[in-house]
## 1
Amino acid sequence: MSKQVAYLGPKGTYAEKAAHILSKLANFQTPIFVPCNGLHSVIKSIAYNNCDAAVVPIENSVEGGVTATLDALWKFPEIFINKAIVLPIKHALISNGELSNISEVLSHPQALAQCSEWLSENLPDAIPLPTNSTSEAVNMVKGSKFRAAIGSKSLIQIEGLKELAFPINDVPGNCTRFVLLSKESNSSLANIASFAFSLISNRPGALLKAINYIADFGFNMSKIESRPSKRELGEYIIYIDLEINNQNNIKNFLELKNKLKPLCNNFVDFGNYFSENVELD
């Protein structure tokens, strides 16, 4: 039976590319790809069993964690990360018009942020307008001489537009980590363990005690990030990625969780999974 895989649509987004790559790595046979309008719709599709899997961005090298994804993983603890890939991101400015006539630039908020310096230098008077996806932005500028979109260069051929500038992202090494989500925990080889927790007590040294446990077990943190709990001001959720590379590490991680849980008001394990870098054609 074919698996339905939700992703941030419409067609042509980096998320669609990631969905195809991750589905292949997961050995899905003839997957059916389901584009969704907005990250919340992607997450709900897996949370409410409308799809078998979902692909979402979780972290960008320039803008940091994708908050909608992080918040959803905390809200729906029955969802697990199964695999991850890191895609290089190279944005193009796409339009029917000429650069000198552009007064509005449309794209996903992350893409606008990743190109903010270029826009301020080259289109200082243009108004940035957020959209649900880069592909949606490109679709919205068709036929306009004063609007431009930021998106993948591959969208130019799809939509019959033209490239005004490429690449325009502020950081040449810009990349995004995409994850494959499902309701089944991963039991295969892994190089990352991801989890989040909120502490019982908000006192000096409370977080340090948890971090010291991680250090005592010899784990390297590849990421630590905080998000507001949304319950009260000053209460935070701590998101952590640990590097793991062998079965001993996985055994130690199980022991670490047992050490951390008494310190936590809530602890959510997002799963162990393999993450790898991928080059686009």
## 2
Amino acid sequence: MSRASEVVRQADTVLLDFDGPVCSVFAGLPDTEVANRLRKVLRDKGVNVSDDVEGTNDPMAVLEFAAGQLELVPDVEDVLIAGERQAVLSAEPTPFATDFMAAVRASGKRLAIVSNNSASAIRDYLTIVGAVTHVEFIAGRAYGRPDLMKPHVFPVREALRALGMPAGTAVLIGDSVSDIEVSNRAGVASIGYANKPGKAERLHAAGATAIVGDPSGMLTLLTALSDSAR
């Protein structure tokens, strides 16, 4: 049995990152397009956008920049949420992710999404793919508080509190270094989902408890749950 299979089988609580392990959010609507919309909000308000923010494709980075202009955060946040909700309409499902979520619940484990994306966009996507009933709680981005995004422990602790489960029962499955960092800070195990070249090394260096690769990663975890149910 692989280390990742062992970790997910032993956990009573599964915390699942959204963009990556569940789907590719910006597969149809590029993240660059959404970032451009956010930059336009800032420019229209007379804000000088820094060079690094001008060059980023990451909408979250633009939102974090907007936090320096607190009165503008709601304007940027609203445009970002609208962009995310549009994006999930053409998001690319991660192979076996929906089956994995169903297997988590069928095994009696608790399941929550812990993400820097908005809860409304996550709920939209889960509804589209028929998985919304599998997920007990969605800890999405706190409105107007980009400072509470992962790797801040707030969303992980919010999910565990909502489920009534201690950190020691949980594993967080995520594809970014921030997922591993927040796992370590919150005291939960972590499975790094290495869906791009070089990620396995970065996730391992960040301290992931175990790592699975792509595209077989979610299938590995699904198989582990299916085997344990026999």
## 3
Amino acid sequence: MILVRRVWLIRHGQSESNAGLPTNGPGASPLTGLGRRQAARMAAAFTAPPDLIVGSPFIRAQQTAEPTVERFPEVPYEEWPVQEFTFLGRLHSPQTTGEQRRPYAEEYWERLDPAYVHGHDGESFQALIARARALLDRLAERPEDGLIAVFTHGVFMKAVMWSLLTGVTDPDAAAMRSFRDFLGACDVPNCSVMELWRPSGTQGWRVVGGGTLHLDETSTTQQPASPARFD
């Protein structure tokens, strides 16, 4: 019998920053009314309790997880470092909007320096990828099989997916350019789910190609297909 560890990486609901409002720090932007409704619908999408609920240190992810935690009070809740990529550091702290920070963000990505730390308190691109890989390692080391729900953030989810698909663990300038292009080509809407699964044995993590929230059971519970098969 092949056991399967499944993970739902869930982006937070719409935050005030997503709505174009000013923020006062990278982790301080709360959900809007729409974001709270999205969080409630996310909680209702579970057809069975997850084995573990994980939230990031940022308030918008914690607020998104709240309805799921309330629906399944018996399920353990843990906080892990799955927060958003905060490459601008202190520039998030004043009452500024994403549009006002855009020129600084564009300047950051144009540098193509994976080790660069903006303002001495931002996060480097190397550190982002290291956090993404650390999440995958931590999930793989969990003793139980079953579903883990991780309430996290859009760019972080893209970093996990990109690192899995490319195999990059120590990015150089070319890899950073590749990820910048990937950011523009991959859309992760608020409260969307990116599913990962890992069968027992020697196979590693896989990204599920397509949403399965409408199904009671998914194909991830079946025998993994041979790499030579394309059906």
## 4
Amino acid sequence: MRIYSWNVNGIRAVHKKGLFEPFIAKHQPDILCLQETKAMEEQSEVDLPEYEEYWCSAERKGYSGTAIFTKIPPENVLLGLPKDLVEKYELNDGYGDTSKEGRVTTLEFEPFFVSTVYTPNAKDDLSRIPMRQHWDPAYLEYMKRLETEKPVIYCGDFNVAHSELDLARPKENKGKKGFTDEERAGFDAMEAAGFVDTLRHLHPNTPDLYTWWSHWGNARERNVGWRIDYVMVSEALTPLLKSARIHPEVLGSDHCPVSIDISL
């Protein structure tokens, strides 16, 4: 089974560039998780008859949002975070209510759950670090709750480079948005809870594997990037993991897709 994740930075924009359907035709994901869709389902002109589509869009138009396209019908559809976790972690700050921004879509399949997340950005001035310190444990608790029922695969834009291997210029960016101790600690907590970074599981020391590039200074052409998009799995699934890849050749967004192949 091929599971892909891609922050499309606006699905309508990628579609208008004529790049979305060719990506689907070439890669043929069984399950495709999308972040930053920036659209309601009815606004999308993407037409993929072989896929069922499940959308969780932001209340604010043209902002945030996630979706999962799947060839395999799910047993259950779960949109957003559970209400008790929203209340427990107080996910509303001066920028807005993150629980109303369409940041989580989760589908239940027979062997496992698949969840996709678009993690809030810490902001250049780090003013949303306090929200990250609420959001990261809230989403992790949700994944651990699901894992009590069956294994979990979760993926998306986590808005953090976990280690120095995951960005081209770690020294220059230490303490800046996406590479603060607080954000990295949120990722540490996921691994401490037993979830596995699939790319590093199979490619522990491979450098230059990036998934996001700035628009400035020909960063993508020079591969001066960051790895902030991940596929995580319950440890019980690691024996079934066949591959974990990034796809920097896929254009249309400032992020590239990431994927795993898993045998069932």
